[in-house]
Amino acid sequence: MTAQRPGPGPTNSLLDVAGLRLGQATRADPPHLSGVSVVLAGEQGVVAGVDVRGGGPGTRETDLLDPRNVVERVHAIALCGGSAFGLAAADGVMQGLYTDGIGLPMGGPGEVVPLVPAAVIFDLGRGGDFAARPDAATGAQAYAAAKAGGPVEQGCVGAGTGAKAGGLKGGVGTASVVLPGGAAIGALIVCNSLGEVITPQGTFHAQRYLLPADAPALRAPDEQDLAQAAAAARTAAPMPVGRPGLATTIGVVATDLSLTKAQCAKLAGVGHDGIARAVDPAHTMLDGDTLFGLATGQGEVPDLALFHEVLTHAPRVVSRAIVRAVLAATSTTTSAGTWRSYREAFPSAFAEPSGDASPDRGPHE
């Protein structure tokens, strides 16, 4: 009998982790190019940890998640565009939770304080106006969308609306894996990296981690596409190295198992391995790379062997989510410039295979 192998969940998304919902608010009306993505837990919240690796982070309530501190659960995670200004979007999420009576009890009925850690990417000015950025109203829209539920959109939506990934258009991506025992791991990543997600050959750094469900028939681009991409790169404006916070990859990696706060911090930490496998260079002084680790507690308390398995697969799920973000992104032009998508830059990567050649894709997990 063949042993069951890990594979993607039913939606291949963060929503395969029981107890989580996702809502996204997109501002792509000129001169905006930004948005907010909210990961919403149940009324009792979710155990959470965090790991910040980038040299230019923009975050809110991350000290709360230190295992030495008292609060165990948070009620939502806000991933936002708008650089440090975008942290204001978490106010709208907090107000929505407060109105619904969800938060840390602090007294009588309705006296609650919602806990909403947040992280931001830099996308200011990409829609044409540096002052056009997410605010509390945008956060409230994303919270309302999370309450309503629905499928996950990827690419240029939510916090990934104005994202770019090296020289390509970035965005929001998600992926999941279900282990043989039934435990689920999911990731939602906003890829807005300084580093490149592709090699000089036009393939993804993390291609070997992809599953068939992630990118059917993805192939190595042909020489013509590579030559055109190289010519385009030579004419592109250089990244203004020397100004901090101009990039950032942020997101959530979650499981339905019952983890401690310290274990959630470890989950977030190994999730960064997935960024390092997918982006080169990663965790630079110009990125604010931040991951939140979440455990919804719908499943068992893992023994050491199962927790080790979770930590083995979590980085792979993060890497897959980054690739899926870039694959789902679409070319975008505003008054501030044009960012080409991977699909536009390398159309031959999606061509039908000829002869007996097989897709250039990695093995199953």
What does this molecule look like?
With about 375 residues, the protein is of the alpha+beta class. Helices cover about 25% and strands about 20% of the residues. It contains six helices and 17 strands. It has helices at about 90-100, 135-150, 225-235, 260-280, 305-330, 340-345; strands at about 20-25, 35-40, 45-50, 60, 75, 75-80, 105, 110-115, 120, 165, 170, 170-180, 185-190, 250-255, 290-295, 330-335, 335-340. The strands form five sheets. Strands 5-3-15-14-13-12 form a six-stranded mixed beta sheet. Strands 1-2-6-9-4 form a five-stranded mixed beta sheet. It has a two-stranded antiparallel sheet with strand order 7-8. Helix 4 (about 260-280) links the parallel strand 14 and strand 15 (about 290-295). Helix 1 packs across helix 2 (about 135-150) and helix 4 packs across helix 5 (about 305-330). The two termini are about 20 Å apart.
Work out the radius of gyration.
20 Å
- Fraction of residues in H or I helices: 10-25%
Total DSSP E strands: 17
Any low-confidence stretches, pLDDT <50, length ≥5?
355-359, 361-365
Average pLDDT confidence is 92
Order of helices and strands: EEEEEEHEEEHEEEEHEHEHEEH
The secondary structure category is: alpha+beta
Topology:
Elements: E1 21-27, E2 34-40, E3 46-52, E4 59-60, E5 73-74, E6 76-80, H1 89-99, E7 104-105, E8 112-113, E9 118-120, H2 136-148, E10 164-165, E11 168-169, E12 171-178, E13 184-192, H3 223-235, E14 248-255, H4 261-278, E15 290-295, H5 304-328, E16 332-334, E17 337-339, H6 342-345
Parallel strand pairs: 6-9, 14-15
Antiparallel strand pairs: 1-2, 2-6, 3-5, 3-15, 4-9, 7-8, 10-11, 12-13, 13-14, 16-17
Helix pairs in contact: 1-2, 4-5
